[in-house]
Automatic annotation (TrEMBL):
Sequence segments annotated as region (Disordered): 43-86
Full protein name: Uncharacterized protein
Biased composition (Polar residues): 43-63
Lineage, top ranks: Bacteria, Pseudomonadati, Pseudomonadota, Alphaproteobacteria, Rhodobacterales
Residues annotated as transmembrane: 21-39
Superkingdom of the source species: Bacteria
UniProt KW keywords: Membrane, Transmembrane, Transmembrane helix
Length: 86
């Protein structure tokens, strides 16, 4: 079935106001989202993590506060148990 009255010019004029209102609501929501993102990034305390972190490029332990390398400990490495064939 088709619509009984299809005067597109009249319908376009009747819906212009509500469509503009919906567009304004979307713009306002995007502004709120952008403001929230800026506020949360500016009010954060920074990255939290362990006191000693591992540099992914070198594999060396690094002090988080000073950025200086930490000497490696001589702890023995533990190996995974050997697989037994059944």
């Amino acid at each position: 079935m088709s619509a009984p009255q299809t005067n597109l010019d009249k319908q376009e004029k009747q819906h212009r106001g509500p469509l503009r209102g919906m567009a304004l609501v979307v713009v306002f929501a995007l502004l709120l989202l952008g403001g929230f993102m800026l506020w949360t990034s500016s009010s954060s305390d920074g990255i939290e993590g362990a006191d000693t972190q591992t540099d992914a490029r070198t594999g060396q332990s690094v002090e988080a506060e000073t950025g200086e390398a930490v000497p490696a400990t001589d702890a023995p490495a533990t190996a995974a148990p050997a697989a037994t064939g059944n």
